[in-house]
Design brief:
Blueprint (H helix, E strand, L loop, with lengths): L3 H6 L1 H11 L5 H32 L5 H37 L19 E6 L14 E2 H20 L8 H7 L3 E2 H8 L5 E2 L2 H20 L3 E3 L4 E3 H7 L11 E2 L4 E3 L4 H5 L6 E2 L6 E10 L18 E11 L4 H19 L3 E5 L11 E9 L4 E10 L3 H6 L2 E2 L8 E2 L1 E9 L2 H9 L7 E2 L13 E2 L2
Parallel strand pairs: 5-10, 9-15
Antiparallel strand pairs: 1-2, 1-12, 3-4, 6-8, 7-8, 10-11, 11-17, 12-13, 13-14, 14-17, 15-16, 18-19
Helix pairs in contact: 3-4
Length: 455
């Protein structure tokens, strides 16, 4: 949620930033309701003061007739106050609802752009990069990357894997090795569902356990295992509600929602709290299943397991003081990238332009892993700095020092990493000409020393 005072005092600046996002927002409604709310509040306070003064005067009157007349006037004034208070409550409710529809504003250093084609590739990484296309000297727009660097990268990666080897997509590899069963997934649950079987299920479980251990043991995160069902206010706090209600799974009788990401319960751990001095920063990591209604992606990624209504993810969540949140975002990206580098999977870091930012993020960088069978870069992590946007919605504050006035924390999150796309990247990058899939070195201890999945 944006600071209402900031909106009131800087409406032109807010309007300019909203224009950069290329999205609709009820700014004019917020300004109108705020003005009406303040006018009504002032009127109610004046009427209450008049009633208080009148009540004191009534007690001093000796003339019975005058006393009755003034009491009647006080009753009428009380009725007027009640009417204005009712109107004030209605306006406040409408104002709060409109504020929840206002997106976060982009940081000044976020590139201005219309859509994803104007996102910037800020860097990319390949294992043992000798002979790879040269490092980026400066960020490159995504459409320019596709036209210039991508062909050179694909030639390099094909030569590295073997010029005569045509990698298969995971939707062919998985069934051939008995790792994925699409038909029975659809039979049981419908489209965009599947079974992982045998070593497929075991491989994903190994990836999850290894990633959590890496974040905890090497990067210092605190592991939590969160609830998968949350109250409405939790989704309001992180920004999924009310705007994206149609994309969530809701159990109406209990008024509980299946989580779209562990970000929701983990961020709301500190809802309505004031964190004491010395508490920050807080770094959490959580594994969870995630549930999203993908009706808005109809026709996209219909083959394979790239996009589904249910998927697993390891999520990193950070709480930081405002002057430390930029460094926290850099650390998030580094920590997510460490997973891909340990697995020796090529990746690129893409900074979202204003036209491709999420509703809640002030700044967002995606990590995309290369999947040679699909011939695509797959988003496996989105690392976002929300500034105080979520903290205002969830009322999460901290004291900078003992006795200091509470201030809103900054919240951040990033996938570390998301399944099943990480699984896709492993399968497609580690496949061999004989149809087998090698197991990356870090995962072998989690699979009993298994070195490959053979046909």
């Amino acid at each position: 949620m944006l600071d209402l005072r900031f909106i009131r005092e800087h409406p032109d600046e807010v309007r300019r930033d909203l224009a950069k996002l290329h999205t609709e927002a009820p700014l004019d409604e917020v300004l109108e309701l705020d003005e009406r709310h303040r006018a009504l509040l002032g009127e109610v306070e004046e009427l209450r003061a008049a009633r208080n003064a009148g009540s004191k005067e009534v007690g001093k009157l000796r003339d019975a007739a005058e006393r009755e007349r003034r009491i009647a006037a006080m009753r009428a004034l009380g009725d007027t106050i009640a009417e204005r208070e009712t109107e004030l409550a209605v306006v406040r409710t409408r104002l709060d609802a409109a504020l929840l529809e206002m997106p976060n504003l982009p940081d000044p250093d976020v590139p201005v752009g219309q859509d994803e084609s104007e996102n910037l590739v800020t860097r990319y990484w390949v294992p043992d990069g000798a002979g790879a296309p040269s490092e980026l000297r400066e960020p490159v727009r995504l459409d320019e990357w596709e036209a210039t660097i991508q062909p050179a990268f694909e030639r390099y990666w094909r030569e590295r894997q073997g010029a005569d080897f045509a990698p298969k997509p995971h939707w062919d590899l998985g069934p051939a090795l008995g790792l994925i069963d699409f038909e029975r997934g659809v039979k049981v649950s419908g489209s965009r569902f599947y079974f992982l079987k045998g070593l497929g299920a075991r491989l994903q479980r190994a990836v999850i356990a290894w990633m959590v251990d890496l974040h905890v043991e090497r990067q210092g995160y605190t592991e939590v295992y969160p609830p998968y069902l949350v109250r409405t206010e939790a989704l309001v706090g992180t920004g999924q509600l009310p705007k994206f209600a149609d994309n969530q799974y809701h159990d109406a009788p209990s008024d509980l929602w299946l989580i779209p990401t562990a970000e929701v319960p983990v961020t709301n751990m500190h809802r309505d709290e004031i964190l004491e001095p010395g508490t920050l920063p807080l770094d959490y990591v959580a594994y969870s299943a995630c549930f999203r209604r993908e009706q808005f992606s109809a026709g996209r990624d219909t083959r394979g397991i790239k996009r589904g209504h249910q998927f697993d993810k390891v999520e990193m969540v950070k709480f930081a003081e405002p002057d430390a949140s930029d460094a926290a975002l850099t650390a998030l990206v580094t920590d997510a990238a460490a997973v891909l580098e340990a697995l020796e999977i090529p990746y690129r870091v893409v900074q979202m332009c204003t036209g491709d930012l999420s509703f809640t993020a002030a700044k967002k960088l995606d990590l995309e892993a290369w999947a040679p069978g699909c011939g695509e870069w797959l988003e496996v992590s989105s690392c976002s700095n929300f500034r105080d946007f979520q903290a205002r919605r969830a009322n999460i504050r901290y004291r900078p020092e003992a006795g200091a006035r509470p201030a809103y924390v900054h919240t951040l999150n990033g996938s570390g990493l998301a399944l099943p796309r990480t699984l896709i990247a492993i399968m497609e990058n580690y496949q061999r000409p004989d149809g087998s899939i090698a197991i990356p070195d870090p995962l072998r201890p989690y699979l009993g020393g298994l070195e490959a999945i053979a046909p």
